[in-house]
Structure formats: structure tokens, C-alpha cells
């Protein structure tokens, strides 16, 4: 496979960031249980991560082509390895906030760099869409693995006086170090990247100027809504399992991996399906199925009494079915992202990726905070029913987006 080593390196980078980014749900559950933090206050951990992503994308994206995609990713990996070691050795709610801020800034840099690198290592829009979906699929593989790593450490810590759940971050620091070494030894030809002679300020203005196009407005609204849904579920699913389904804390975390596994399977399958079926019909069908799943499964979560779940053999069926929504959500984000990036010239893709990351981060923060508010003030079922609102809005939004995308002339944005 051509460019296999840099593709493998991008996948490895995505895996380590997948674990770190999506440890928010685990940390939220643990700080509520260990430190008595309220759900509303715990929800700000998502904001520390996502607002850092948005701020870094807004301020740094235009500098990345000058600094170099590979070098940018190397510095980001070094930062998160350091932050993971701090979390493992010191811990606490304050260090958790610092960790997610560091991870957020670093991921923004890595995502802009990785998405922009795709045009350097793929031959056409079909390969671009296929590998982007594959890369996002492995991101979810990392999320899945992260839930099991954390769940295992939580279970060990519950029966040990020397092992803490925060020691999970020693393992994550080691994985990050390996990803750093792989990228360091992987060549990447960036000579074809066009860099404006007018400086990063001009690049920044060009990034913001993209918002004047109706196609891009529809896209960023869609990205916002999608990530709202994905992160609302991802962040609060372990707490939903613990407080609503009354599962033990270690099982609450581990069974949430079904959500990540469903997303991974859906995205990996989408890489094949999109070659044969029009993306519009796939995405709209997936949204309808996600809505149906929520309406069918949430009623099954009512009336479960505390103490009825003592192990895996007594876990209610709803705990397995609800996370399966990830399978239907899976194709939406990478397909929309690829459709917009493949329409732009290479020198505008880092700016577009910056916008993708900014509005995705804002969507994730909004979803987590609103869900946390509903979770704390009302109940878990109401909080999860509320995801139907952005799902319906997304379904409606994709209709005009498709129309604008079909009318759009490839390369018309210079």
C-alpha cells in the first residue's frame, strides 16, 4: 500500500488521542463519585477539552502549514505524554482540567495536520474519503480500547491500596511515546504545500472568509449538531449506566465501550459502503434508525432498582442496546468532512479543517453541558431523550446541504 507508513502513523496518533479525549466520561464519573463534584460542575471538563480545541484551531490553524504538519504532530504528542504523566502522579480535579486543556490544544493541532496531510498521501477523492473514514474508524477503536483500559484499572483500584485509577495514564503516556517514535522515523513530503507569502494573518482571514459560502455554513451547522449528539452520549453514558441502570462503576465504564465499538464498526463499514451507495441516502437512513433506537430503548431503562445488577450476568439488555446507536451515527461525520475537504484546493484545506475542528468542539461542549444540566436537574432518561432534537435538526439540514453540494463547482474557492 502506497504511503503505508505515514498512514499507519496517522492512525496511531488518532488512537492515542481517541483514548485521551474520550476519557472525559470516565473522569466525570470518577470525580463525581470520589470528590462529590456535582454533574453540572463535572460537565465543565468537556469544556476544558473542547474550548481548548476550538481556541487552538482558531488561533493556530493558519500557522501549521508554515511550521510543518509532521513537526506540529510531534510537539503535540510530546505535550500529551507530559500531561498524562502529571495526571498519573498527581491526579485531582484541577490536574484533570489541565490535562484536558492540553489534550484539546494538542488534538486541534494533530487533527488539522492529519486532515491536511491526507491530500498529500491520497490519489483522488475516492481514496481520500475511504482513508478518512478508515482513520476515523480507528479513532473509535481507540475509544473502545480506552474504556476497557480504564475499566480494568478501576476494578483493580477498588481492590487495592497501592493502585489508583489515575495510574491508567502511565499506560497512555507509554502509548503516546511509541506514537511519537513512529512518527519521528516516518518520512513525509510536504513540498507540495502552498504557503502564502503574505503571512499567517492572511491565512487566518482566508479561513474566516470561508464562512461566506452557503455550502460551508450548512456544513459547519451539520458538524456542530453531529458532535453535539456524539459527545452528549459519549461523555454521559458511563454516568447513565451507573446512576440510571445501577451498574457497578467498572462495568459502567467497560460496557460503554459498545458505543465506541459501534462507531468503529460503522465507520469502517462506511468506507466500503460509500463506494457503492450514494452518501445522502446512507446518512439519512442512519439518522432515522438512530431516532428509532432511542425511542425504543430508553423506555426499557425505567424502573431498574439499585442492587439488582451484581455482575455481567445480570446487566439489563438496555445497557447493550443503547450504545448501539453509535453504529448509525458513525458514517455521518467523516462523510460530511470528506465531502467538503475534497471540494477545496490543497492550500485551503488546513483553514477548512480549522473550521471543522472549531465548530465540532463547540458542538461537543454544548452537548456535554446541556446533557449534564439535564442529568443533574432532571434525570438521565430526560437528558438522553433530548438528543432527539439535534438528530431531527441534522436530518433536515442535510437536505439543503446535499443540494448546495451538488451545485458547487469543485475548486471554485481559490
Key attributes of the depicted protein:
mainly alpha, 20 helices, 414 residues
What does the model show?
This protein is an all-alpha fold and 414 residues long. The chain is built from 20 helices and no strands. The mean pLDDT is 85.
Give a short summary of the structure:
By secondary structure, the chain is mostly helical. It has 20 helices and no strands.
The CA-CA distance between the termini, in Å, is 32 Å
Task: Write down how many β-strands occur, each being a DSSP E stretch of 2 or more residues.
Answer: 0
**pLDDT averaged over residues:** 85
**Helix-residue proportion:** over 70%
Task: Specify the number of helices.
Answer: 20
Poorly predicted segments: none
Global morphology: globular
Describe the largest sheet.
none
Q: By helix and strand content, what is the structural category? A: mainly alpha
Oligomer type: single chain
Q: What are the secondary-structure elements, in order, as H or E? A: HHHHHHHHHHHHHHHHHHHH
Strand content: under 5%
Radius of gyration: 21 Å
Topology:
Blueprint: H1 4-21, H2 24-35, H3 39-42, H4 44-60, H5 64-67, H6 69-89, H7 93-121, H8 125-158, H9 168-184, H10 200-209, H11 214-243, H12 249-255, H13 257-273, H14 279-297, H15 317-321, H16 325-329, H17 332-341, H18 346-377, H19 380-385, H20 388-407
Helix pairs in contact: 1-7, 1-8, 1-9, 2-11, 4-7, 4-18, 6-7, 6-9, 7-18, 8-12, 8-13, 8-17, 10-18, 11-12, 11-17, 11-18, 11-20, 14-20
Amino acid at each position: 500500500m502506497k504511503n503505508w507508513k505515514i498512514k499507519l502513523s496517522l492512525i496511531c496518533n488518532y488512537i492515542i488521542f481517541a483514548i485521551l479525549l474520550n476519557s472525559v466520561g470516565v473522569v466525570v464519573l470518577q470525580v463525581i463519585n470520589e470528590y462529590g463534584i456535582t454533574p453540572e460542575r463535572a460537565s465543565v471538563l468537556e469544556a476544558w477539552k473542547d474550548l481548548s480545541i476550538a481556541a487552538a484551531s482558531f488561533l493556530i490553524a493558519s500557522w501549521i502549514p508554515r511550521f510543518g504538519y509532521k513537526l506540529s504532530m510531534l510537539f503535540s504528542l510530546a505535550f500529551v505524554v507530559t500531561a498524562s504523566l502529571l495526571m498519573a502522579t498527581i491526579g485531582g480535579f484541577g490536574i484533570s482540567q489541565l490535562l484536558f486543556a492540553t489534550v484539546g490544544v494538542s488534538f486541534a493541532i494533530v487533527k488539522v495536520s492529519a486532515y491536511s496531510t491526507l491530500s498529500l498521501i491520497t490519489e483522488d477523492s475516492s481514496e481520500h474519503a475511504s482513508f478518512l473514514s478508515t482513520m476515523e474508524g480507528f479513532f473509535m477503536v481507540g475509544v473502545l480500547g480506552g474504556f476497557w483500559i480504564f475499566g480494568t484499572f478501576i476494578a483493580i483500584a477498588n481492590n487495592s491500596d497501592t493502585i489508583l485509577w489515575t495510574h491508567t495514564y502511565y499506560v497512555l503516556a507509554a502509548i503516546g511515546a511509541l506514537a511519537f517514535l513512529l512518527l519521528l522515523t516516518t518520512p513525509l513530503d510536504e513540498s507540495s504545500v502552498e504557503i502564502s507569502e503574505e503571512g499567517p494573518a492572511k491565512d487566518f482571514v482566508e479561513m474566516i472568509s470561508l464562512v461566506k459560502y452557503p455550502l460551508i455554513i450548512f456544513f459547519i451547522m451539520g458538524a456542530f449538531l453531529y458532535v453535539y449528539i456524539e459527545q452528549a452520549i459519549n461523555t454521559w453514558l458511563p454516568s447513565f449506566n451507573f446512576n440510571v441502570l445501577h451498574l457497578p462503576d467498572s462495568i459502567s465504564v467497560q460496557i460503554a465501550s459498545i458505543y465506541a465499538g459501534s462507531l468503529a464498526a460503522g465507520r469502517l463499514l462506511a468506507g466500503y459502503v460509500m463506494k457503492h451507495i450514494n452518501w445522502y441516502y446512507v446518512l439519512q437512513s442512519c439518522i432515522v434508525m438512530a431516532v428509532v433506537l432511542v425511542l425504543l430503548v430508553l423506555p426499557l431503562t425505567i424502573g431498574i432498582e439499585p442492587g439488582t445488577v451484581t455482575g455481567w450476568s445480570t446487566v439489563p439488555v438496555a445497557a447493550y442496546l443503547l450504545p448501539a446507536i453509535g453504529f448509525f451515527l458513525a458514517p455521518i461525520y467523516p462523510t460530511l468532512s470528506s465531502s467538503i475537504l475534497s471540494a477545496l484546493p490543497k492550500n485551503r484545506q488546513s483553514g477548512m479543517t480549522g473550521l471543522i475542528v472549531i465548530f465540532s468542539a463547540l458542538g461537543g461542549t454544548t452537548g456535554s453541558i446541556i446533557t449534564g444540566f439535564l442529568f443533574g436537574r432532571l434525570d438521565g432518561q430526560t437528558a438522553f431523550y433530548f438528543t432527539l432534537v439535534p438528530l431531527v435538526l441534522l436530518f433536515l439540514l442535510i437536505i439543503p446541504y446535499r443540494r448546495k453540494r451538488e451545485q458547487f463547482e469543485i475548486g471554485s474557492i481559490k
